[in-house]
Design brief:
This protein has about 575 residues and is an alpha+beta fold. The protein has 14 helices and 28 strands. The chain has a 7-stranded mixed sheet, with helices on both faces.
């Protein structure tokens, strides 16, 4: 086994207590020293957890959900909403699960078995909804709102509130990305704690008291930090909404897909909502304790459009004239012993790097290979989550051994293949291209070369090459009118496959938009090219077959299960 699964919901083991048919299964939190464990009984089931673990998390290990609004595992305990009420044996009043720590022998009942807890939670919901506006029909949160879900699950009774509701601010911008509807806010304070404790920017605060309490920002200090959109994900109701996506679509009209953000090499887990096959209408963070918790940067969240150009390449061309794929591939050399350059996009999937490695070994063993890697300066807040690159899967190139044999010898095993190697090699390739060193140049992927590097000198050098190829997605890319052969590729959002983040966390990203007609993933282009040149590189017919084939054939990935990779990811040994 070359890696270990990353469990994002708490590791557990099970064992039997006693003998015979009345034996009780005890769930134990793993990774905790035996001396730190205490046994708690929740609704008759026993769980052994670290002393002090709150009851919400202890119950979660048993597969039991205790409803809550203000609690978040990565924020401080506020105890505002009172929704997570439980009954602890020996305590005369209901307690809140978020702020009740586990002790040895504690016995707890929840809403699943205790009518008193049920009544307490129903009363809390009635109180929370007293001043809540009846605007579910126009609320962006409708369809995935915890007020709606909990009302039907834990209350479901008509309102007894007869007084006039308290009216608060409506559609008030908190900053460039987030809008506030104050009447919907239930004062859970998640947004306040996030800005205080995670970003340290403290833009949001609570004003006034009682039912007049509101969240607000100072007039001269808006919510404008690099992770500001995260507060919308944290909001359990519809009080905070994205200004960019406000009123753009109902969630039930969209298709939601679990994917990995391709903005940088952090590899944040996201859920992407797409409508009409190609329009991204919302991006939310998915919880993964080992990668991004439930945070997501604004650059990644609102930047998915840059991977889906409006003017798409949909047909191959040679010398600017439309041709079939076969004709385009026949215009390329079957192999090359000349000084050829292969520029590679940093957001291909790992499987494509493996296929490209095999192609280079079989057809162009002397090619100078460069991955488009370049670092940038980050602010202290950006460093909380963002990686200093735009190279989402540069580790995938390493794991795929794209640079295994180069001038530096065995790279990857001796530590010489890393970020500095990639950056230096890319800059060297740019200099060589400008100097007219290469007789052939191939650009594999839309971002194989940064747009800012495509100046007149570079384009002239490409035009002067004996053969040049661009596999990309954007019809407006300057390379389209410069290279001799153009083949339509696919965006990372149009593929499924393996990605590896900066911390060697292997994850799976799924295709989030429908496939544009006339396009083909880069691995298929390389495979067809190799087939015409003398033999296929892989027998796969689709992305899934390719993934399974790579998992079984690549030495570093053997033994890994796709099920584990999809369920939070696997940490690879470095």
């Amino acid at each position: 086994m070359t890696g270990t699964p990353s469990d994002t919901s708490g590791n557990v083991t099970s064992g039997q207590s006693g003998f015979g048919p009345e034996a009780v299964t005890i769930v134990t939190q793993s990774g905790v020293p035996e001396s730190d464990l205490v046994t708690v009984t929740i609704d008759g089931a026993q769980v052994r957890v670290r002393k002090g673990t709150n009851i919400i998390e202890a119950a979660r290990l048993l597969g039991k959900d205790i409803p809550h609004y203000c609690y978040h595992p990565d924020l401080s305990i506020a105890g505002n909403c009172r929704m997570c009420q439980i009954q602890v044996k020996g305590v005369p009043r209901l307690s809140i699960g978020c702020n009740t720590g586990a002790t040895e022998g504690m016995e707890v009942t929840t809403q699943a078995t205790d009518s008193g807890v049920v009544e307490g939670q129903a009363s809390v919901l009635e109180f929370i909804l007293a001043n809540h506006p009846l605007d579910c029909t126009v609320c962006d949160q409708a369809g995935h709102c915890k007020l709606q879900d909990y009302h039907y699950e834990y209350n479901g009774r008509p309102s007894r509130f007869l007084e006039d509701k308290v009216h608060k601010v409506k559609a008030e911008p908190l900053g460039p990305t987030v809008m506030l509807d104050g009447e919907r806010c239930i004062m859970c304070s998640r947004c306040v704690r996030f800005c205080d404790e995670i970003t340290g920017t403290s833009e949001i605060g609570l004003l006034n008291r009682g039912d007049r309490t509101v969240i607000a920002v100072s007039p001269d200090r808006p919510l404008d930090n690099p992770l500001s959109g995260t507060v919308v994900d944290l909001c359990p109701v519809g009080a905070l909404t994205h200004r960019e996506w406000r009123f753009n679509s109902r969630i039930w009209f969209s298709k939601q897909t679990d994917a990995i953000c391709p903005g940088c090499s952090t590899g944040c887990n996201v859920r992407v909502a797409v409508r009409d096959a190609h329009e991204v209408v919302q991006v939310k963070a998915r919880y993964n304790q080992a990668v991004n918790k439930e945070w997501l940067c604004d650059e990644g969240r609102y930047g998915f459009g840059r991977f889906l150009p409006r003017d798409r390449l949909t047909s191959p061309s040679v010398g600017g004239k439309p041709v079939t794929l076969t004709e385009a591939l026949r215009a390329l050399p079957k192999s090359s012993e000349d000084e050829a350059a292969i520029f590679v996009a940093p957001d291909l999937v790992l499987e494509e790097y493996v296929v490209l490695r095999r192609f280079i070994q079989a057809r162009m063993p002397r090619a100078f290979v460069a991955l488009a890697y370049r670092e940038r300066e980050l602010t202290s807040v950006e460093k909380i989550l963002i990686s200093p690159d735009y190279a989402a899967n540069f580790r995938g190139a390493q794991i795929g051994q794209l640079f295994r044999r180069e001038e530096g010898g065995e790279l990857g095993g001796d530590g010489s293949f890393g970020e500095k190697f990639l950056g230096d090699r890319y800059e060297m390739a740019i200099r060589k291209l400008r100097g007219g060193v290469f007789s052939r140049v191939f650009f594999i992927g839309e971002r194989a070369i940064a747009r800012e590097d495509l100046d007149a000198e570079i384009l002239s050098a490409v035009q002067g090459c004996q053969t040049s190829l661009f596999i990309g997605t954007d019809k407006t890319n300057p390379l389209v009118s410069t290279v001799s052969v153009v083949i339509p590729g696919r965006s990372i959002l149009e593929k499924s496959g393996l990605v590896v983040n900066r911390g060697y966390h292997l994850q799976y990203t799924d295709r989030v938009v429908e496939l544009p007609e006339g396009t083909m993933p880069e691995w298929r282009v390389l495979n067809e090219w190799s087939t015409i040149s003398g033999g296929a590189l892989v027998p796969s017919q689709n992305d899934r077959e390719l993934t399974l084939g790579i998992l079984s054939s690549e030495e570093r990935l053997k033994g890994l299960r796709l099920k584990d990779i999809k369920a939070g990811g696997v940490v690879l040994a470095t």
